[in-house]
């Protein structure tokens, strides 16, 4: 049997611990070990961004991170965005502005957008388009994604949020 | 109550997808499930001498390894389903796994089954294959030459089909005042939905039932074909398309891998999962286009087009794919005259086998190629006679009083107001101001250009009798059941199979509006051959025009039945019952009424039904339209070309589309945006690149340029609404308008910008390098 | 793919001619060389580890030296097969005298298949030059060692 190691990390606010092969990618760890299948795999070469998650608050492509590299860290996936009270403003905006069609790239795109809004709470259209460089969407032509991000930024500013808070994980 | 049909309702499917609660094929996990990985040929053309799987089999964690020989007698090769008559078609099925010969790089040779995908991949590296490499041929034009490598021994000159429609004597062109001749290459593109293909198969050895979850746009077609391939009756083969992450035509085809996975699940009696890696997708999933188009257009000096002749040399790849024979022939050929009243037209199509991935439908399938050649030819014609390209279009567009219009290619355009769409686009654009700006900017060394595309396309497949006449081995009608439950909520079943279109919203809008119930009370079921009696799937922009029409008609049947029950309960006759906003009311007596929910309960309880009325409240429709639908419009693209780098920047993009009745304007606009992004992608960036030896160099997203957000300005989208007479909704198709209209709009714009450099023709994609070289050679000539 | 590479040795052309076809020199100088053995027909069986950007693997193959025109030219044919794909190369080796020694120019025509072609192609040129550079540098060192021992 292949060499195994133990990893533990906080995912969407919950502690997880598993024994895995050291070569296991973070995206496979999330999908296969933790059954968090909202994070998708769209390419093998870290171009498409469907697998983007927050690692200690920063967006990373989980297909290019080994699970062991995330050991001891905090991860937020799409499953961690909404709270019991309802959808996160980014999710709400994608819904209202029709920022998704097939929905396969959407989790990664929303996480990438959160990464942008954490850095720049009032991005221009051009800044949003540039910030989406790391994600590919084949369905929407991006226009309604851009609208959704703009709308989410406005909602968050009006709510006085300085950081795009997550349902549970970021508070820890 | 505001009308639901025509309003921008938020999508019903979104809360699930936005929270990570979708269920795509790779999300399915079954107890005891093992994983498949395919070994693929590194050669484009080679004889297989030996496959040694011994080492792979003995790797810990490996369940089994199969070669083509191991599967012999267990499943058949996978056939195409479009056998076009009258073209000497030589169909070549895809073998389950290659046994004697591989015919394209990426063809599957063996498959490993292992406890997880990592071990499966490890085991692939342990399989040894000896190949005798054969000369390969990639270009369809070279493949037809006498000395070219032969893919299939019994297909001389690799010619899979030769299709002719119409004939025009050479004299017509010899006598014409003006003739434009141009060779255009509509390059090979790779569909690239964000979800690759995948399959999960589960076999029940007790009952003999097979369930196959797979990334399909048309699960009933998959059932039809795979039932025969696997030797499982349709009663015991259940195909489920769960959430599907985009298709664009690539998930129409019935491939071998899904069937192999099912076959092996039956062999080893364990659930098997296979998910395509992206680099496999590039080689193993069908490609689109790849047609060399030679167009000849005859006209008069005052701008009238009199005849059109086109030769299409189409690359079919190594085998005949599911719809492969139809795309460059019927889909392309019938639409070569575009939106113009051209009295004479003729088409010849050569379909050629080459050592490349098989080609099949890609968003538009033949219509984008048809539109590309006619819209480019019209611009070249305008140039030659010194007339404005908009003026030439105005002169030749099919006039309003000509509808239904019988084209020279023998099809009947259902309805249209082509000038209106053009007017509306020009109004948004302000053409005169642009030409002024263009002139000014040129003096400053800035090169702007505008391109027009006044397109029409054929979609909404279609009358089944026509499908039969053109050799399509299936029907193209659509089915819907609308079931009202005792509590008053409604389940709608459709034989179309959405993968991003938002059908669960639009179809529920139709039903909710007609029944007068809240849309939250209506749910759509699709993509499951066990739940939905029959259907032909989502492609060719047929979901709303055909599937939506079936939903509408099935709902009408529910209302018709409910009206009888209401009349009975209200002690009056059926003709005295009015049905408005969910209420059955006796004419002139508002106090006597029943809600649809009340009738649903009484219909299902069946305590007191009128004579001859059966219990339950359910309607079903099998709708076979009388004709295709023909959406149309005008797209205008403005570009700026950087003289120094050759880079093309899209400055404006205006799209006025007429898709008949718009059910949901928000979703309609989303379809327009997405289609345009792909169409612009083909015009400027996308293209499959093969080496002469048949190696796909554009084999990852590192080398194949996918459109990104920063490549586009906001698209200016508007609609005109000319209803179609061929279905009760008046709807036409919308999914393929963007990929159809955009490529010539963009290329015409770049050509306009490059006029000062004397550049007349460039083939897509118009990459910076290509444009820069054209500018340089233009300069050198000066 | 075509590429060319020139390395200048500070040794006489005749010495370079002998040593650059010498088994021991080749064995040491071929990057990642795991085995190098002479076959009956005069060709060599080679096993080497190669790494082209993201594509790594062990290659086995045959090397053949033909058309020798001492001391100025020979042809090197390489056929290799590995998990990432197959390599088929023909190299024309030209040895020219220079002021302080001999310049060896390698003009190579390479055909690759598999992942090497689809993923590796864009980095192949650079990597191939790197590998050739390593080869000549090690050959240079090895030749010096041998000549100083003589």
UniProtKB/TrEMBL annotation, chain A:
Pfam families: Fer2, Fer2_2
Amino-acid biosynthesis recorded as keyword: no
Domain of life, source organism: Bacteria
Residue ranges annotated for the 2Fe-2S ferredoxin-type domain, each copy included: 5-81
InterPro entries named among the record's database cross-references: 2Fe-2S-bd (IPR002888), 2Fe-2S-bd_dom_sf (IPR036884), 2Fe-2S_ferredoxin-like_sf (IPR036010), 2Fe-2S_ferredoxin-type (IPR001041), Beta-grasp_dom_sf (IPR012675), Diverse_Oxidoreductases (IPR051452)
Alphabetized GO MF terms: 2 iron, 2 sulfur cluster binding; metal ion binding; oxidoreductase activity
Keywords for the protein's UniProt record, in alphabetical order: 2Fe-2S, Iron, Iron-sulfur, Metal-binding, Oxidoreductase
Pathway: Alkaloid degradation; nicotine degradation
Name this polypeptide is given: (2Fe-2S)-binding protein
UniProtKB/TrEMBL annotation, chain B:
Required co-factors: Mo-molybdopterin cytosine dinucleotide
Keyword field contains Oxidoreductase: yes
Gene3D superfamilies, per database record: Aldehyde oxidase/xanthine dehydrogenase, a/b hammerhead, Aldehyde oxidase/xanthine dehydrogenase, molybdopterin binding domain
GO molecular function, one term: oxidoreductase activity
InterPro entries: Ald_Oxase/Xan_DH_a/b, Ald_Oxase/Xan_DH_a/b_sf, Ald_Oxase/xanthine_DH-like, AldOxase/xan_DH_MoCoBD1, AldOxase/xan_DH_MoCoBD2, AldOxase/xan_DH_Mopterin-bd_sf
Lineage: superkingdom: Bacteria
Aldehyde oxidase/xanthine dehydrogenase a/b hammerhead domain ranges (all copies): 19-135
Record carries keyword Cell membrane: no
Keyword terms of this UniProt record: Molybdenum, Oxidoreductase
Protein name: Xanthine dehydrogenase family protein molybdopterin-binding subunit
UniProtKB/TrEMBL annotation, chain C:
Pfam families, sorted: COXG (PF06240)
InterPro entries in the record: CO_DH_gsu, START-like_dom_sf
Taxonomic superkingdom: Bacteria
Transmembrane segments: none
Designated name of the protein: Carbon monoxide dehydrogenase
Species name: Brevibacillus panacihumi
């Amino acid at each position: 049997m292949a060499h195994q190691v133990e990893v533990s990390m906080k995912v969407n606010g919950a502690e997880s611990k598993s024994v895995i092969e050291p070569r296991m990618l973070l995206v496979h760890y999330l999908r296969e070990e933790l059954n968090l299948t909202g994070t998708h795999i769209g390419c093998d070469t870290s171009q498409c961004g469907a697998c983007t998650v927050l690692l200690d608050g920063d967006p990373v492509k989980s297909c290019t991170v080994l699970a062991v590299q995330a050991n001891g860290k905090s991860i937020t996936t799409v499953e961690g965005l909404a709270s019991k009270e309802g959808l996160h403003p980014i999710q709400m905006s994608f819904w209202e502005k029709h920022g998704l069609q097939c929905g396969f790239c959407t989790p990664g795109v929303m996480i990438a957008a959160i990464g942008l809004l954490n850095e720049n709470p009032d991005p221009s259209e051009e800044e949003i388009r540039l910030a989406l460089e790391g994600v590919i969407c084949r369905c929407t032509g991006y226009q309604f994604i851009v609208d959704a991000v703009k709308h989410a930024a406005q909602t968050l500013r009006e709510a006085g949020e300085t950081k795009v808070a997550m349902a549970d994980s970021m508070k820890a | 109550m505001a009308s639901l049909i025509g309003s921008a309702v938020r999508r019903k499917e979104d809360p699930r997808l936005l929270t990570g609660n979708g269920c795509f094929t790779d999300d399915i996990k079954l107890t005891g499930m093992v994983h498949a990985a395919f070994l693929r040929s590194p050669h484009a053309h080679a004889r297989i001498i030996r496959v040694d799987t011994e080492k792979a089999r003995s790797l810990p964690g490996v369940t089994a390894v199969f070669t083509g020989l191991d599967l012999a007698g267990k499943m058949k090769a996978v056939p195409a389903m479009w056998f076009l008559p009258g073209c000497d078609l030589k169909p070549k099925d895809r073998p389950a796994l290659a046994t004697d010969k591989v015919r394209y790089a990426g063809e599957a040779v063996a498959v490993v089954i292992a406890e997880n995908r990592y071990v499966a991949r490890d085991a692939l590296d342990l399989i040894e294959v000896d190949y005798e490499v054969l000369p390969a041929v990639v270009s369809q034009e070279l493949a037809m030459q006498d000395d070219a490598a032969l893919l299939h021994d019994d297909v001389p000159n690799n010619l899979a089909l030769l299709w002719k429609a119409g004939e025009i004597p050479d004299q017509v062109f010899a006598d014409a005042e003006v003739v434009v001749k141009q060779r255009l290459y509509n390059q090979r593109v790779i569909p690239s939905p964000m979800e690759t293909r995948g399959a999960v198969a589960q076999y029940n050895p007790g009952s003999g039932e097979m369930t196959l979850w797979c990334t399909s746009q048309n699960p009933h077609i998959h059932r039809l074909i795979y039932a025969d391939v696997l030797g499982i009756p349709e009663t015991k083969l259940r195909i489920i398309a769960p959430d599907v992450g985009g298709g664009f035509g690539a998930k129409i085809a019935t491939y071998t891998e899904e069937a192999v996975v099912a076959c092996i699940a039956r062999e080893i009696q364990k659930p098997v999962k296979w998910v395509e890696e992206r680099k496999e997708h590039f080689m193993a999933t069908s490609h689109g286009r790849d047609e060399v188009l030679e167009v000849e257009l005859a006209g008069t000096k005052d701008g009238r087009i009199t005849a059109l002749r086109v030769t299409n040399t189409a690359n079919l790849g190594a085998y005949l794919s599911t719809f492969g024979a139809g795309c460059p022939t019927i889909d392309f050929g019938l639409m070569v005259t575009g939106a113009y009243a051209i009295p004479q037209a003729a088409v010849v199509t050569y379909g050629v086998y080459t050592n490349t991935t098989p080609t099949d439908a890609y968003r538009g399938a033949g219509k984008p190629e048809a539109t590309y050649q006619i819209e480019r030819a019209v611009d070249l014609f305008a140039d030659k006679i010194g007339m404005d390209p908009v003026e030439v279009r105005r002169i030749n567009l099919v006039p309003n009083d000509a509808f239904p219009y019988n084209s020279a290619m023998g099809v009947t355009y259902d309805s249209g107001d082509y000038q209106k769409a053009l007017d509306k686009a020009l109004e948004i654009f302000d053409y005169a101001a642009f030409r002024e700006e263009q002139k000014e900017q040129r003096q400053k060394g800035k090169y702007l250009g505008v391109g027009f595309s006044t397109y029409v396309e054929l979609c909404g497949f279609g009358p089944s009798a026509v499908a039969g006449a053109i050799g399509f081995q299936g029907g193209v009608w659509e089915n819907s059941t609308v079931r009202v439950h005792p509590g008053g909520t409604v389940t709608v079943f459709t034989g179309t199979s959405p993968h991003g279109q938002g059908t669960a919203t639009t179809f529920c809008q139709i039903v909710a509006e007609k029944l007068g119930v809240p849309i939250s009370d209506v749910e759509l079921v699709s993509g499951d051959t066990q739940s939905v009696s029959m259907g032909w799937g989502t492609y060719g922009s047929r979901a709303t025009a055909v599937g939506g029409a079936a939903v509408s008609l099935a709902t009408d049947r529910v209302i018709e039945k409910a009206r009888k029950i209401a009349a009975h309960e209200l002690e009056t006759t059926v003709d005295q019952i009015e049905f408005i906003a969910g209420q059955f009311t006796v004419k002139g007596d508002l106090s006597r009424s029943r809600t649809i929910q009340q009738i649903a309960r009484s219909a299902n309880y069946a305590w007191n039904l009128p004579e001859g009325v059966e219990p339950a409240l359910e309607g079903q429709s099998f709708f076979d339209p009388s004709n295709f639908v023909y959406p149309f419009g005008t797209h205008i693209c403005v570009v700026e070309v950087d003289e120094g780098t050759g880079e093309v920047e899209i400055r404006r993009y205006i799209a006025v589309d007429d898709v008949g009745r718009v059910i949901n304007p928000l979703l309609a606009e989303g379809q327009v945006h997405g289609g345009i992004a792909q169409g612009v992608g083909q015009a400027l960036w996308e293209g499959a690149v093969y080496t002469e030896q048949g190696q796909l160099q554009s084999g990852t997203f590192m080398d194949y340029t996918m459109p990104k957000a920063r490549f586009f300005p906001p698209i200016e989208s508007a609609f005109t609404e000319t209803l179609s007479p061929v279905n009760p909704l008046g709807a036409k198709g919308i999914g393929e308008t963007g990929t159809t209209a955009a490529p010539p709009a963009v290329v015409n714009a770049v050509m306009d910008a490059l006029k000062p450099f004397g550049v007349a023709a460039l083939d897509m994609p118009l990459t910076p390098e290509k444009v820069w070289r054209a500018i340089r050679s233009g300069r050198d000539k000066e | 793919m075509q590429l060319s590479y020139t390395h200048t040795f500070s040794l006489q052309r005749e010495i370079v001619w002998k040593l650059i076809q010498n088994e021991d020199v080749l064995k040491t100088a071929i990057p990642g060389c795991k085995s190098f053995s002479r076959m009956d027909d005069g060709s060599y069986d080679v096993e080497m580890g190669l790494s082209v950007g993201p594509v790594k693997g062990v290659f086995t193959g045959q090397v053949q030296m033909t058309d020798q025109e001492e001391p100025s030219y020979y042809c090197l044919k390489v056929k290799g097969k590995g998990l990432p794909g197959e390599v088929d190369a023909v190299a024309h080796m030209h040895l020219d005298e220079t002021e302080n020694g001999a310049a060896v120019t390698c003009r190579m025509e390479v055909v690759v298949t598999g992942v090497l072609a689809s993923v590796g192609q864009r980095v192949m040129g650079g990597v191939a030059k790197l590998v050739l550079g390593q080869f000549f540098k090690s050959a240079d060192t090895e030749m010096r060692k041998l000549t100083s021992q003589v």
